[in-house]
Amino acid sequence: MEKNKKRSDCPLSNSLDVFGDKWSLLIIRDLMFFKKCTYKDFLNSAEGIATNILASRLKGLEENGIIEKSAHPDSKAKILYRLTSKGVDLLPIIMEIYVWSDKYLTMPEDIKEMIKEAKKDKDKFLRQLMEELKIRMM
Fold it and tell me: Domains in the chain: how many in total?
């Protein structure tokens, strides 16, 4: 996930190098939908990421401008992570994965409801959620 490493000129290949492994996508998901923002928050996600993998993925996402970190207001020992504008712009892609998953996979009712809402007016849903994410960036 190094910033300057390219396997080819293919846009899909290059994009996957930035955010395409499962752990990076789950970190992005946690930031977008579950308001997780600390190392411990990500570590406590249901998928059970190992600490070395988490540290590596956070570093890679930061190096690629998808996330940024800042000091935690309540603790000098903690760091806050948040999506950058570049990271927020991944929302439509993530939502399309959710829509695809709804069609082919089993999922919890609360997520099915969110997808159902998104399908009613996808553009409006994405605009609202992107605005919320941008507010969290401040």
Answer: 1
